[in-house]
Amino acid sequence: MRKKYISLLLVLFMFFTSVVASYASDIDDTQKIINSFSDLKGHWAEKPVAELISKGIINGYPDGTFRPDASISVAEFTTLLLKIMNIPIEKDTKHKEWYMGAVNTARKYGLIKRNEFGNYNNPITRGEIARMTIYALQDEMEGYNRYRGYKVNGAIVEENFLEDYTERLNKLGIIGGYPDGTLGVDKQATRAETAVMLLKIAELAKNKNIELKPIENFVNPDLDVPQRLYNYPMDGVWKGGADPKEIVAITEKWLPILYGRDYTNLDGYKEKLRYHIACERTFNGKWLKADQWMDAYIQEAIDNKIIQESYFITAEDLTYADRKYNQWIRGTLRFIYHSHDNPPEGVKVGQWYEQDMDIRWIWQSKDEEDYWDTHRYLYAQTKVLSNPIPIENPYQ
Question: Which domain holds residue 155?
Fold first, then answer.
């Protein structure tokens, strides 16, 4: 009996010794990671950062720094979120940007939706992290019925505010607040804050048994914003103007109508143009009233047997207001002429092209002579930024 008792004590001693040794080893490993960076020791998030590094999710920089208080880009966070959710990142061979594999994977799994980001090198905000995280956790935002509503060609489009996503994430215990009582929705997230949030996301996803799957029958068209659009000079201030999302939606829907004449099918075409056209404008050097301009534009299609197809690629962070308070949006028009007896110089019928341009919108005024009650934004002009560039068929 005594021998059994002693044996049991030895087993328990060995067990607790191994546990303590393992715990001590973990502490040593954590401290080694912290000490390996010149700017991490003593930081409030040193342990969460070290844990995330030990999991192989995030790394430091070649100069031996981690830069915990630096911002993190949309592309970097997207990559980290996929890793922490155990989603394999698909390879991308079509683009030169290193992050497009992660971006396309995130789209495929519903973590990024159309037009939510344009420049993936931009610092991500806490509100944008909250939105992506809510998508990843498949949270239904129960109790949040406040929507951002706006009209696009007569139809109401609704979405949650970033404030709502952030508040919900706060209630889930993933994102904290600041001493002033705010959640810092529009503040750029730091690498340290991101590390803490990612660990909490992983824990909650595990507790809820979340296993993300690709969207069924997902098709990822080549609608990525060319990064060169951010390099053109701009006479204005990037801040979106009145409502970036509305401007994007209107332009993407209506510009292909403007640049989509089909001389074989013009029934109702003028009414579609009329939705955003009023005021005088020039046509071949002549100032015409809106109705006259549309008639001339349609007649040109008939005379030259024009059949054009197009679509416009842009993003919210490509909208801006100039110093005269005009509303602009930058993007690239992808187009093809299926028929044209007198195509523009350098353009061939049957070939797809893309052309960079700025589109100016103005607020309509009921004092204008040819005003009609259509939409509050009126198309003013197209400012071409580049010559047409031949491209492969985007639908293949």
Answer: 69-207
